[in-house]
């Protein structure tokens, strides 16, 4: 009888289980894992070295169903016959979060560029041709990596990993619930 009671109680608890992921938790997760450096273009002709350093996260702040990400990048752009230019690029993205059961992680989808700020404002080079790949590279990085992964060490999170949870945005948190 005790086994049946325990199974029944576990079934009830698992059917209404949820876990909230805060902006701070996602921020900490990304701070530990974000950042890369890449070079695009053809060296000696035209190329850019991009260093992507940090991301600031907001949940449901721009739109009730989206996560917003403010990404900072530095680029050093070289074009044959011109002096090298250093740029600070701040890009604001928004995306729809989704839960991937196989990965046990939250990813982003439907990434949109909301705002771009480039310093210095005046460039002496064909900026659109070089800046598009930089922004696309940062966006691709954000789409292919989880923004949060559930932990196997936390009982509640590990329980949710094995279920088919739903992902919602409530009160500036991502809520994973069954």
UniProtKB/TrEMBL annotation:
Q: Which InterPro entries does the record match to this protein?
A: DUF1439
User: What is the name of this protein?
Assistant: DUF1439 domain-containing protein
- Asked if the record carries the keyword Phosphoprotein, the reply is no
- Domain of life per record: Bacteria
Signal sequence bounds = 1-20
Q: Which UniProt keywords apply?
A: Signal
